[in-house]
Design goal:
It is a single chain. The protein is mostly helical. The chain has one domain: NAD(P)-binding Rossmann-like Domain (Rossmann fold), CATH 3.40.50.720. 52% of the residues lie in helices and 4% in strands. It has a two-stranded parallel ribbon with strand order 1-2. The longest helix is centred in the first third of the chain and has 22 residues, at 17-38. It is globular and about 40 Å long.
Length: 91
Amino acid sequence: MIHHAALPFVSRSIDDPQTTLEGNDTRTLNLLVAGWEAGANGLVYASSSSIYCPASKVPLEESDRPEPTSGYAVLKPYAEHCRTAFYHSRD
């Protein structure tokens, strides 16, 4: 499965964090459950460079330490951890 959907915009996550949570992480969790039930072998998940904000260097690398400064940016690593947990639960 490939998951690139999101409710974007840092400003939205500040003004309406509940909708951002439901739109991004609750739906990601629902997708993970559906994939699990369908027997999918994995999920490609599109995160965001905003988890590294403020960027201390360019280009960014996945090994850089995340420093999220908004609700949107905080929720992205959460979804990444959910994806990883689902993957390891299948072992």
